[in-house]
Structures are given as C-alpha cells and as structure tokens.
Amino acid sequence: MIEQQLEQLRAEAFADLAGVSDESALEAVRIKYLGRSGGLTAVSESMKSVSKEEKPRIGKLLNEVRNALTTALDERKAALLSDADRKAFAGVDVTLPGVAARLGTLHPITQLQDRAVQIFRRMGFALADGPDMETEFHCFDALNTPADHPARNEQDTFYFNDGRLLRTQTSTVQIRTMEKNTPPIRIIAPGAAYRRDEIDATHLAQFTQMEGLAVDEGLSVADLKGTLEFFFRELFGKDAKFRFRPHFFPFTEPSYEVDIKSTAVGSADRWLEIAGCGMVDPAVFDSINLRRKDRAFDPEKVTGFAFGFGLDRLAMIMSGVSDIRAFTDNDQRFLSQF
What pLDDT sits at residue 268? Predict the structure, then answer.
C-alpha cells in the first residue's frame, strides 16, 4: 500500500513540476510534497505501521523518491533563474562600449595625515592614540591649564553630565603616553578635536589635529626648531621660509607660533600661521610624576618639546581652499579633485 502511495506521489510531483512557470509556483510544489504537512512527510510517518521485514525495502524507496523530488526541484529552480536572466538581458547590446566605474580616493585630510605620519616616522616618532571623550585632568589639569582659563568654559568646550568632555586637543594623548611610559618618548597623535566654535569658512566644531611630543635628556629649542623645519620643508618644499614667534601656552615654556611665508604655496607674499609649539613646562612633568607616583619625568633630568597643528588648516593652505566646510560637505565635484 505504501509502495503504491510513493509511486503515485512521485508521478504527481513530477507532473506538477512540469507545469511550474515561476518561483512562487515552484515553492508551492515544494511545500505540497516536502513541507511539514506535505504528502511525502505523511507517508514517512506511516512507516511505523510497516512490518520489520518490509521496512528496509520501503525505507529505501522513500529515500529514492525524496532525493529524486529534491533534485528535480533544484534543477527546475536553476532553469527558472536561467530563463529570467536570459529575458533580462534579451534587449542588451553586448557590443556597446562599457561604462567605466568611478574610482574613489582617500579624503584630502586623510591623505595629508598619512603624509605627515610618514615624515614623522622617518624622524623616529611613533603613532599614539587616545579616547575622544576625556577627563578634565587629561585635557586641562595635567596640561597646567588654570581653572579660570577660557577653554574650560562650557561655552567653549563640550561637557557631559558626568563631568567628562570631548577633548579640545590631542595633547591628551601626550599625557596618557607619559602616564604609561618612561623617557625617551617620541610620539605623534593625530585625531579629532572638538570645540564650541561657530561654524564658518575657517572654523568647525570638530576638526583634525596632529600633536607631537618628545621627551629625553638634553632636548632643547634647537631640537624643536629642527624637527618642525624639517617636517614643514618636506611638505612645502626645501626653499620654504619659516619664523618662530614668541607666544604663550599654559603647557609649554618658552612657547612659539610657527609661520610660513605664503610664497611656498603660490600665494601673495605674506606670513601664515601654521602651528604652535614650545618646550614642555616643568609643571606638566610634575603633574605626571604625581600621577605616576614616581620621578620618571624629573624636570631636573629630562626636557621635552611639544607641537601641534590643524590638518584641516594645512590642507586649506596647501590646496588653496578658502572654505573649510568644503572638506565636510561630501560634494563629489570637490573631492574628486584630490
């Protein structure tokens, strides 16, 4: 009896498959015979009434029918897909020239950052990183920033309810590096910084900064000056002219701002500010020593220099872009130039 049912199911299933014209109809056939409530499943459940002597023969036939139907379903599905592809490309002229795919490039800020990292690595600087969300200690206290400094005002810095903040500079990475390592240290820290600036042609609330730190015995202003002049000449050319103007930063003493003669980028002859720098203030080393609970950064034994510059501003100067917002507008017409 079961043997007859199986042969009948096989014949009916193959007849139904022959009339299938799309994938939905094919799925209906699959469910009808192989589904949880399908005909073949029902026959399988009746195997428990088959005698012990007949079970091997009937079981073998059941598997043959199931395998044959599964194979037929797969072949019919492949045939339907092939037929659909053939119809989709029926009107396509394969002799027409193809349309070239547009290849993207790295963002101009990323390109400049990669170039800067390459130059500093040639001078022995290692790449360092740190969190964007910081503590007041790492962003201000450790950097000798007084409590009444304007940068600590809520109008200038993004604070969170728990007292943490978005770092206003990547100098925080310098502090974290000194907390975990001992001299000699030579690192650069590129990354995002955040300030409550009004967004205009020269300011963004988020910008890309690169800072550097070197700490060792006997470092002087000459080392600082030589490092930055080498770096900027690699960027702007061997004949670029620079000047170091005295300035004030809470975390360096003496401090300087670095200017470049704009003729290096083909502009009218004038000075452009491109970086800030200075010798690490001994108060910063004292703060680190207190945090570490040792004298690894004894200002009587080691000295250091630090520097920082905005990659966005450098990119503007080098490419002649007059509006910093162009770097964040994601306009393909602008970005494709780079």
Answer: 72
Residue 102, SS3? coil
> What six digits make up the tokens of 112?
């400049």
Backbone angles phi, psi at 259, to 5 degrees: -115, 150
- Residue 157 near residue 196, CB atoms below 8 Å: yes
Q: Which amino acid is at 278?
A: G
Q: What pLDDT is stored for residue 74 in this prediction?
A: 85
Q: What digits encode the pLDDT tens for the residues 170-205?
A: 999 999 999 999 999 999 999 999 999 889 988 899
Residue 336 CB partners (closer than 8 Å, separation 6+): 105
Alpha carbon distance 280, 117 (integer Å): 22
Whether the CB-CB separation of 61 and 3 falls below 8 Å is answered with yes
DSSP reduced 3-state for 39:
helix
pLDDT at 267 over 70: no
Looking at residue 221, its pLDDT comes to: 97
Contact present, 178 and 137 (Cβ < 8 Å): no
pLDDT tens by residue, 88-143: 888 788 788 888 877 778 899 999 999 999 999 999 999 999 999 999 999 999 99
Distance between CA atoms of residues 159 and 12, nearest Å: 73
Main-chain phi, psi angles of 2, to 5 degrees: -65, -35
Contact 251, 306 (CB under 8 A): yes
Taking the C-alpha atoms of residue 130 and residue 136, their distance in angstroms, rounded to an integer, is 14
pLDDT digits (tens, 9 = 90+) for 14-51: 887 787 888 888 888 788 777 777 777 777 776 666 67
pTM of this structure: 0.69
User: What are the angstrom distances between the C-alpha of 236 and each of 34, 107, 120, 333, 337?
Assistant: 73, 19, 15, 25, 19
CATH architecture of 108-335: 2-Layer Sandwich (3.30)
- Partnered with residue 206 across adjacent β-strands are 194
For strand 303-310 and strand 252-261, is the pairing parallel, antiparallel, or unpaired?
A: unpaired
Domain ranges of the chain: 2-88, 108-335
Alpha-carbon distance values, 260 to 101, 241, 269, 273, 274 (Å)? 40, 6, 10, 7, 7
